């Protein structure tokens, strides 16, 4: 059996890992979209690195677009195999992939107008909403901790990672030459205490481990400190300055988490009396999916439900439903909190809110998650930056830029090592580090070696290994 690392190899986006068994079966682990890579992004997404029609099965770790976002394109290019994932991942993908298809269509309209002015040929979107809808016919949802038999030589079990709703370790059992090979792909690893979801669960012993490394060189601050810091930023921005607090947040996971914290502050009477807007149609629909999967919620959320029927709603919280409501926020003069996607600020309504608010010194832009190095979210954090280009227009950067890293859904290096402690390191033949910047991966490799892991590889894009 061979494995080829195509995306998220020495970088944090575009997850794709291709397994080829000795009898010719081709199994793709994730099919993520590259995001935040500037001019390279489009060509990287259009060039899969393999023939889509030859893929027999796609096994999906979770629904985030950098792991699932090219499934409609895979379908468009001829893939007709099965997409196997957890039930919640399937439900979220039904929303997220269609939303991504809509963004592709809208972006191409804008891009082609610019192309036309330059006398250049128009381009087609990478995929459309129709492709996103059609590909959902291939999805098979599987409950956590239930072994699903794809055929007599291949089966999979999903175990919870706590990273996002439906996020899972892909535990593969492959029979080759009469022997069982156990391969575990962690996808993205969550925090031991998520504000909404159950904590990560131990997963079965593996022979080969593929694991993420996003925060492999750092530690997160304490959770209590994070909640207090959020409250302090709200008071400084909205009460003392009378400004707006703009929070770029991924529609799935981070939005629900920040709303849950604000809900707790509201219930305790500590949240100032200001309006809070969630301006993301996808986040509105995704929050309904969260409500459908209460079996994945942690004990704190379940306890909250005893006295608060909706942990994702309170009196001063408003979910905007249409473009007109979103545009109205541009002229909103009162202090408020606006939560909008996407978290890396590369697409979505957040870019409009940034364009309308970055030049006002009363406002704060609060980063609560990881931003890829070339994304707008990373550029806006550059020290000493005086202006920022949004939609090709330069804006003075007078707003305060703040960061609360502990809202990230990725575990830090101690949390990831603790999660991997369920593995007997002497039984793991080889470990592959993916989904991380190379210098971070080198640091994390040393930290894993400290706790007994050996034969650790950091594959480059396109590199192939025999298992």
Describe the overall structure.
This protein has a seven-stranded mixed beta sheet. The chain has 14 helices and 22 strands. The chain is of the alpha/beta class and 467 residues long. It has two domains: 2-218 and 409-466, Ribonuclease Z/Hydroxyacylglutathione hydrolase-like (Metallo-beta-lactamase, Chain A), CATH 3.60.15; 223-407, Rossmann fold, CATH 3.40.50.10890. The mean pLDDT is 91. The protein has helices at residues 40-46, 65-68, 71-76, 87-117, 129-135, 223-240, 254-267, 281-292, 299-307, 323-328, 350-357, 376-379, 413-420, 438-450, and strands at 2-7, 16-20, 26-29, 57-59, 82-86, 139-142, 148-151, 154-160, 168-176, 179-185, 208-212, 244-248, 275-278, 317-319, 336-340, 364-367, 387-390, 393-396, 400-403, 430-434, 456-457, 464-466. The radius of gyration is 22 Å and the shape is globular.
What's this model, at a glance?
The chain has 467 residues and is an alpha/beta fold.
Give the strand content. Answer: 15-25%
Question: How many beta-strand segments?
Answer: 22
CATH architecture of the largest domain: 4-Layer Sandwich
Count every helix, treating DSSP H or I runs of 4 or more residues as helices. 14
Count of folded domains: 2
CATH superfamily of the largest domain: Ribonuclease Z/Hydroxyacylglutathione hydrolase-like
Proportion in helices: 25-40%
Poorly predicted runs are none
Instruction: Give, in spatial order, the strands making up the sheet with the most strands.
Output: 6-5-4-3-2-1-22
For the record, the CATH class of the largest domain is Alpha Beta
Average the pLDDT over all residues and give the rounded result. Answer: 91
The secondary-structure class comes to alpha/beta
Query: How far is it from the N-terminal to the C-terminal residue, by CA?
Result: 5 Å
């Amino acid at each position: 059996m061979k494995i080829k690392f195509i995306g998220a190899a020495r970088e944090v986006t575009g997850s794709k890992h291709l397994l080829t068994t000795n009898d010719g079966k081709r199994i793709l682990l994730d099919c993520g979209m590259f995001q935040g890579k500037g001019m390279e992004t489009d060509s990287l997404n259009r060039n899969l690195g393999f023939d889509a029609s030859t893929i027999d099965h796609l096994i999906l770790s979770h629904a985030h677009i950098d792991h699932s976002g090219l499934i409609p394109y895979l379908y468009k290019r001829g893939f007709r195999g099965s997409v196997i994932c957890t039930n919640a991942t399937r439900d979220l993908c039904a929303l997220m992939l269609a939303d991504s298809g809509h963004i592709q269509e809208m972006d191409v309209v804008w891009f082609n107008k610019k192309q036309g002015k330059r006398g250049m040929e128009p381009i087609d979107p990478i995929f459309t909403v129709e492709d996103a809808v059609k590909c959902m016919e291939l999805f098979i949802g599987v409950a956590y901790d239930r072994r699903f038999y794809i055929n007599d030589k291949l089966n999979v079990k999903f175990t919870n990672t706590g990273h996002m709703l439906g996020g899972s370790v892909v535990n593969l059992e492959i029979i080759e030459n009469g022997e069982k090979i156990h391969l575990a792909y962690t996808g993205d690893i969550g925090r031991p205490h998520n504000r909404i979801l159950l904590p990560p669960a131990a997963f079965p012993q593996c022979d080969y481990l593929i694991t993420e490394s996003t925060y492999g060189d750092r530690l997160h601050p304490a959770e209590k400190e994070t909640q207090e810091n959020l409250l302090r930023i709200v008071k400084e921005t909205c009460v003392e300055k009378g400004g707006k607090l703009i929070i770029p947040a991924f529609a799935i996971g981070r939005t629900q988490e920040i709303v849950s914290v604000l809900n707790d502050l509201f219930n305790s009477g500590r949240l100032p009396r200001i309006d809070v807007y969630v301006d993301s149609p996808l986040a509105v629909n995704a929050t309904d999916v969260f409500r459908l999967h209460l079996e994945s919620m942690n004990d704190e959320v379940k306890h909250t439900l005893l006295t608060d029927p909706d942990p994702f709603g309170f009196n001063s919280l408003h979910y905007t439903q249409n473009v007109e409501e979103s545009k109205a926020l541009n002229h909103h003069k009162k202090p408020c909190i606006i939560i909008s996607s996407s978290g890396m600020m590369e697409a979505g309504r957040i870019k409009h809110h940034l364009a309308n608010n970055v030049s006002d010194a009363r406002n704060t832009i609060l980063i609560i998650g990881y931003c890829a190095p070339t994304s707008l979210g990373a550029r806006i954090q550059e020290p000493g930056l005086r202006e920022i280009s949004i939609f090709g227009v330069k804006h003075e950067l007078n707003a305060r830029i703040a960061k609360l890293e502990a809202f990230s859904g990725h575990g830090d290096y101690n949390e990831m090592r603790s999660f991997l402690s369920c593995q007997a390191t002497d039984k793991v033949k080889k470990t592959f580090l993916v989904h991380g910047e190379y210098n971070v991966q080198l640091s994390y490799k040393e930290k894993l070696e400290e706790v007994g892991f050996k034969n650790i590889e950091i594959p480059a894009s396109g590199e192939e290994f025999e298992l």
